[in-house]
């Protein structure tokens, strides 16, 4: 398979650059010699210090610039696009979290709907060569068929977060149809790893287990997630930047991919992996299934492999070991010397 390498002469705008996936992807592009413009509102949904730590990694690169701003600020975006010849937009900025969308629904409409609309408008008027944007495995909602395929109907979301992500796909499809904007949607499946999001289960479980605190285990641990290590996510997205059929199809330049490990793990097995890596036992308290949660996620990645020859393959044990090594260093749980 002859894949095009990432073009280091282009300028890449990464929204959500101080976020988990955004930082790792930006770092990868920067290490390849690309010019990256980072964009993030640095909100306090979780610890801003973690976002600052990610940002400090990126600021070490000379060809990185950063803009602290919100996607709903259309005037700021217009000024940014007008002053920079942005070739590729990778929109990872969004309000994340399934359960939080039940508590603060208005935040999701502003960030995930209005903000994404503004990005589409910038791509329309400034003629970017490719838009890649974060969707989510949450769009599959209450689908019973597994593994989840991008050919499945996804019209049964069970959270507002999922509904906003499906809306993003529909909006991108419309703009691709009307204005021939090459757009590639990325349905991420439970991403984890160093510098990850503290609201994710693997992160909060690790913190609680290390501190001998109780963890909440929903549905008695009988839930399955297609945990996908961050390096696999970055590799998949990097390959798609220059090789997605969306940028070659002139009739309808639009494509959606699952990026998942293609191997769901039980929640209770995740806890056991953390116990093994930390050498400590979890103090568990069991709860029923939470509103907005789904029982299982499982990615069919056939089209990802067919188009760019890549299949994520990091095991949960290896990935959790790497995460906990980072966690201990970051929070000074072990001697960094």
Brief overview:
By secondary structure, this protein is α/β, with parallel strands linked by helices. It has a domain at 11-193 and 230-261 and 298-313: 3-Layer(aba) Sandwich (Rossmann fold), CATH 3.40.50. Helices cover 41% and strands 17% of the residues.
Helix content: 40-55%
User: Biggest sheet: strands side by side, in what order?
Assistant: 3-2-1-4-5-6-11
Helix/strand order, N-terminal first? EHEHEHEHHEHEEHEEEHEEHEHH
**So, the CATH homologous superfamily of the domain at 11-193 and 230-261 and 298-313?**
NAD(P)-binding Rossmann-like Domain
Give the second-level CATH assignment, the architecture of the domain at 11-193 and 230-261 and 298-313: 3-Layer(aba) Sandwich
User: Segments where pLDDT lies below 50 for 5+ residues?
Assistant: none
CATH names the topology of the domain at 11-193 and 230-261 and 298-313 as: Rossmann fold
Could you tell me the mean pLDDT? 94
What structural class should be given to the helix and strand makeup? alpha/beta
Head-to-tail CA distance between termini:
43 Å
- Number of helices, where a helix is a run of at least 4 consecutive DSSP H or I residues: 11
Beta-strand segment tally: 13
């Amino acid at each position: 398979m002859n894949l095009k390498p990432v073009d280091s002469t282009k300028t890449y705008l990464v929204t959500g650059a101080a976020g988990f996936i955004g930082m790792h992807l930006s770092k990868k592009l920067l290490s390849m010699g690309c010019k990256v413009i980072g964009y993030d509102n640095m909100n306090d949904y979780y610890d801003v210090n973690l976002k600052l730590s990610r940002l400090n990694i990126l600021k070490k690169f000379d060809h990185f610039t950063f803009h602290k701003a919100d996607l709903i600020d259309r005037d700021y975006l217009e000024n940014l696009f007008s002053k920079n010849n942005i070739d590729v937009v990778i929109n990872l900025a969004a309000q994340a979290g399934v359960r939080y969308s039940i508590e603060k629904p208005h935040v999701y409409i502003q960030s995930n709907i209005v903000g994404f609309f503004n990005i589409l408008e910038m791509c329309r008027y400034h003629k970017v060569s490719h838009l890649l944007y974060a969707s989510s495995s949450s769009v599959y909602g209450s689908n019973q068929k597994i593994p989840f395929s991008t050919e499945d109907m996804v019209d049964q979301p069970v959270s507002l977060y999922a509904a906003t992500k499906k809306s993003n796909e529909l909006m991108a499809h419309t703009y691709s149809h009307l204005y021939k904007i090459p757009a590639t949607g990325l349905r991420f499946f439970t991403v984890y790893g160093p510098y990850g999001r503290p609201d994710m289960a693997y992160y909060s479980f690790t913190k609680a287990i290390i501190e001998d605190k109780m963890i909440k285990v929903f549905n008695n641990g009988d839930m399955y997630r297609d945990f996908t290590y961050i390096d696999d996510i970055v590799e998949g997205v990097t390959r798609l930047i220059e090789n997605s059929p969306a940028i070659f199809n002139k009739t309808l330049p639009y494509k959606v991919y699952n990026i998942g490990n293609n191997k769901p793990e039980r929640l209770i097995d995740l806890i056991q992996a953390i116990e093994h890596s930390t050498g400590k036992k979890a103090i568990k308290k069991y709860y029923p299934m939470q509103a907005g949660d789904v029982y299982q996620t499982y990615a069919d990645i056939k089209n990802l492999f067919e188009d760019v020859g890549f299949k994520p393959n990091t095991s949960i044990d290896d990935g959790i070991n790497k995460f906990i090594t980072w966690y201990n260093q970051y929070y000074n749980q072990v001697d960094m010397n």
